[in-house]
Description:
mainly alpha
Amino acid sequence: MFNGSSSFSKYLKRFLIIAVSIYLALRLRQTLQLLLISIFLAGAITPVIEQITRFRVNIYKWEIGLNRVGAILLIYLFLFFAIILAIAPAPQIILELGQFFIKLPNLLEQIQLPKGGLFNLNQEQLSRVLQTQPLIDQAQTFGKEIVSQTFGFTIQIFNAIGIGVLSLLITAYMVINSSSLMRRFLNLFSKKIRKEIEILIPPITKCLGAYVVGRVGTSTLLGFCTYLTLSLFGIPYSGALGLLVAIANLVPYIGGLVALAAIFIAAWGVDFNRAAIAMFICFSLQQIEAFILQPWLVAPYLNLDPFELLLSIIVGAELFGVLGAISAPPIAGTCRILFNHFSPNPNIPDTNIDTEI
């Protein structure tokens, strides 16, 4: 009777703990989101911090290097200047992007094929393809919303920056005190589970870091280089198109094609030679980013083959839209690491199976 009462009390405590945890999670959603973002960022920048702290410079008899605090300050200083450079033209670029979508029908009408057609496509067929009214209407509506809410978008950007700064402060605390925090966290588990977690943390942090630094960093660089190229050749809406390239490139495969189509539409009304050279340079930049930078910075740590990557993007977009498509690859890469770790190796025979008949 005593054992039954003891078991009932144990399960009741577990139920109460789970119920209270769910209640707190629902009530403190924003706080939990902030903590999850901070944990994600901490895992992402930890490999970069470790690389910086390993770097040493010998000056005479002294060996000079940065500790974790110095490395974080260096990274945050770089981010501060990057944010300042991004905020200053933000309202104008957002307004320009809205104007691009509003004037999209006029830009499409400027696309004229040679008299003999192109790729078995004549001018009439091209016009029917381009003047797909529902898509044009949606693009114009989207553009009008952007233009009418430019101030609101700017305020949202500043709010996001405020949340980001708070998240970066929490991230810095987590990275600086990672050893003590990890020790406290691991003490909650048994020795066997602690060992598994210690094995899994390095590849997971490398996966997250490779995606944030490799994917987001190269997409930002690609957008900036696209902006410089289009500005140099006098292509209109260069700032908006650079922003569109940077955002669209975060969605593998599809994003680059959408961005190139937008550049093609904007560049058609300009001098043909200048537009052709600008398009070629923008296309070349995308190929360099996709086939040189991504395989070097991201592919070795994401652990996904092309089909798995595409499937994760489709599922993420179906569940959470554009943000889901952007965040799906690192989540899928983490799941692949967990699956590879816990799934049995088919090359090793299972010694626990009874082979006797």
